[in-house]
């Protein structure tokens, strides 16, 4: 028994359960009593949720390589930050991601991710096991002084870019699972704004430096489209545009 740990978890667990209970009670069953096919339930695409972000400015400005900063330094610092933030975001719902609730590492578009061990063997694992593999690997890589050097004058290895790509690919899997399997709980905790901001920032970053294959990220393109390209401000009035009134001038 670890009393300090238990009391802390006890409080957060109770609060989260109450919050999730509220959200679950709100959702009405389908009239015919049948469960909707999984592909229909992209709650995260509903306008009510896609408008929630913590910051509302052009994220592209945040990710472009600043002048005077070395590309590898920039990639290292951003990758480490995304690892920490995604790990933290996952930890907010980790008590709902169990071997029972998430028997596989699922994501949108009927995606299931499998873990490949060091010998390249495909391993079947639950989502919490998969996330644990991802986080342990990322932790090991970003704290390895030979790969992510922090000391002045130390060079990045030749494999640096491919390792950054590997980390980003796995972190994307975690984000995709969060949206697919734990969006309801994220909403119950009122953390969807943080998740949306994190996802949009991450996507703009990996696109800027081509770090994740678009074939991987396409399963979340519908959400990326909405979050990474904010809609222009609505027009001041709905009056017909001049072009529709002067349709004869085009001759
Ligand atoms: Zn899960």
TrEMBL record:
It comes from the Eukaryota. Zn(2+) binds at residues 97, 102, 177, 182. Keywords: Metal-binding, Zinc. This is MOB kinase activator 2a. InterPro entries: MOB_kinase_act_fam, MOB_kinase_act_sf.
């Amino acid at each position: 028994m670890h009393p300090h740990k238990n009391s802390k978890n006890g409080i957060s667990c109770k609060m989260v359960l109450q919050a999730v209970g509220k959200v679950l009670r709100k959702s009405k069953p389908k009239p015919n009593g049948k469960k909707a096919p999984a592909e229909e339930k992209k709650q995260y695409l509903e306008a009510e949720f896609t408008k929630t972000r913590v910051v509302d400015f052009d994220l592209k400005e945040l990710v472009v390589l600043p002048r005077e900063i070395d590309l590898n330094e920039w990639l290292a610092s951003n990758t480490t930050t995304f690892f920490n933030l995604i790990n933290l975001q996952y930890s907010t719902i980790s008590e709902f991601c169990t071997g029972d609730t998430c028997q596989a590492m699922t994501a949108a578009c009927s995606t299931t991710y499998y873990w490949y061990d060091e010998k390249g063997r495909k391993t079947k694992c639950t989502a919490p096991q998969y996330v644990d593999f991802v986080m342990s690997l990322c932790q090991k890589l970003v704290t390895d002084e030979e790969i992510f050097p922090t000391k002045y004058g130390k060079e990045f290895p030749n494999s640096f870019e491919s390792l950054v790509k590997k980390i980003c690919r796995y972190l994307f899997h975690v984000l995709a699972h969060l949206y697919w399997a734990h969006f309801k709980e994220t909403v119950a905790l009122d953390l969807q704004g943080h998740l949306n901001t994190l996802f949009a920032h991450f996507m703009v970053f990996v696109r800027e430096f081509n770090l994740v294959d678009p074939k991987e990220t396409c399963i979340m393109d519908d959400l990326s489209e909405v979050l990474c390209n904010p809609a222009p401000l609505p027009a001041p009035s709905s009056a017909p545009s001049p072009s529709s009134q002067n349709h004869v001038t085009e001759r």
